[in-house]
Amino acid sequence: MKRSLLAVTLLAFPGWADTVLPTVKNTATPAATAYMKGVELVTAGKLKEAQAAFEESNQLDPKLGFGYLGLGEVALRSGQTQQAEGHFKTALGIQPANAGVQAAWGRYLESQRRWPEAEAAYRKSIAINPEAVPIQVSLGDVLLKGLNRPQEAADVYRRALAKDPAHGGAHFALATALARLGKLDDARPEYEAAARVSPKNPLPHQALGELLIARKDLDGAMKSFDAALAANPKFFLAYLSRGDIYMNRGDHARAAAEYEAAAAIVPKAAVPKVKAAMAYQALAKLKEARTLYLAAIELDPKIPVAYNNLAWMAAQSKTELERALDWANKAVSLAPRDPTPVDTLGWVLYVRGDTTRAIQTLKQAIQMDPQRPDPHYHLGVIYQQTGNQSEAEAALRKALQISRSFDGARDAEQRLARTRR
Questions:
Q1: Closest CA to 243 of 213, 219, 279, 195
Q2: Are 295 and 289 in contact (CB under 8 A)?
Q3: Cβ(235)–Cβ(223) below 8 Å
Q4: DSSP assignments along 240-256, one per residue
Q5: What number of other Cβ atoms are within 10 A of residue 48's Cβ?
Q6: Distances in Å between the alpha carbon of 188 and those of 127, 170, 172, 225?
Q7: What is the rounded distance in angstroms from the CA atom of residue 301 to the CA atom of residue 303?
Q8: What is the dihedral of CA 224, 230, 233, 239, to 10 degrees?
Q9: What is the DSSP letter of 147?
């Protein structure tokens, strides 16, 4: 009997970060030159040197204001949020009618998840400079991600694309908004356009692949994930997605290889290890699965599927039964509304000899979701083993009425036949 597995939440896709410190068109003045030098240093990650350049810019021309934006950026990247806000407000006080200053203020507000204020700042920036496409994209991002207004966001992205049809971030963001609205047919060409415009960026290919999975086109999705890896061989999400497709097809060995490749790229991420463990568990390579589940827990102690599957494997092998009980209880505590860990806990209790509590726990799992066959099946097994043939027959029949393709279906049919005899 093979255990059904809990799903692992996929990682969210990052987006394009278009909003940066504004540039100074006229760099003839020493203050402007010092500021632009600071921008280059920030981009290079040299924050101390950048801070010195921005301070020099402020000293040379206190009325330019841009040096304070730079200091705000340095403080923000250094985790000094309160100082960052003070610098941005100073710049805003010096140049309130400057589109770049308003945009930088909006970016700060967005970083702090102050969505309505960020929207207002970006709209002020656009009103001052309607041609600034990156700021329009940032406004759309706030509407989409922060304020959950996908239709308005889509309209903003379309206006940005009308000004710059080659803006890959706008195509990608528009596709995301359309997908949020359920308009998958409209989203697909936008993802494809983003991939054409930004061929070295794996995100459009990845997102298109996920969209094709939603449309049940696994072959098309696999091609998209292949394209994502062609764009960036270190893009681990594509390996995870390819592994998911192989798992769906029952090719657990290839799935394990894909998940292991992802784990090698991000060794401190728990999800690739959990997925690899699930593939090895399906291959009955339980030693490898156990090692990976434990490694995942070490990285992230709040993944219920790892505890659940460790408990199940221990119960099946009748080993580590004390730890199995701890693992099962931990899984239930982390996912209290999911009947799968409750079902596992019931089975662990049965294997440990606590039949009364096992039956009570399995009945609880059935109450949580009466249409899951596994708890009915496990209850039937326990009733049969304890000599309660009528209850065993009812439970096994119910499991098979729900599904004839769950992992224990064949065993349930055989047990039901013996019960009838």
A1: 279
A2: no
A3: no
A4: HHHHHHHHHTT-HHHHH
A5: 10
A6: 31, 14, 10, 15
A7: 6
A8: 20
A9: S
Of the candidates 8, 17, 15, the residue with the CA atom closest to the CA atom of residue 207: 15
User: How are the residues of the chain apportioned to helix, strand and coil, as percentages rounded to the nearest 5?
Assistant: 75, 0, 25
For CA atoms 14, 19, 21, 23, the dihedral sign is positive
Kindly tell me the burial class for residue 377, based on how many C-beta atoms sit within 10 Å of its own C-beta (0-12, 13-18, 19 or more). Answer: buried
C-beta neighbour count of 219 within 10 angstroms: 8
DSSP 404: S
The one-letter amino acid at 266: V
Cβ count near 146 (within 10 Å): 17
Q: Which residue, among 145, 151, 144, 126, has the nearest Cα to 136 in the 3D structure?
A: 126
Take residue 232 and report the two structure tokens written for it. 């960036």
Q: Tokens standing for 146?
A: 């922060």
Mean predicted confidence (pLDDT) in 21-40: 84
Give helix then strand counts, H and E, for the chain: 23, 0
- Asked if residue 6 has pLDDT above 70, the reply is no
- What is the tens place of the pLDDT at every residue in 35-86? 999 999 998 999 999 999 999 999 999 998 899 999 999 999 999 999 999 9
First to last CA, the chain: 23
Q: Please give the pLDDT value at position 13.
A: 32
Q: Give 52's contacts (C-beta < 8 A, 6+ positions apart).
A: none
What's the pTM?
A: 0.81
| Cβ neighbours around 272 below 10 Å, total | 27
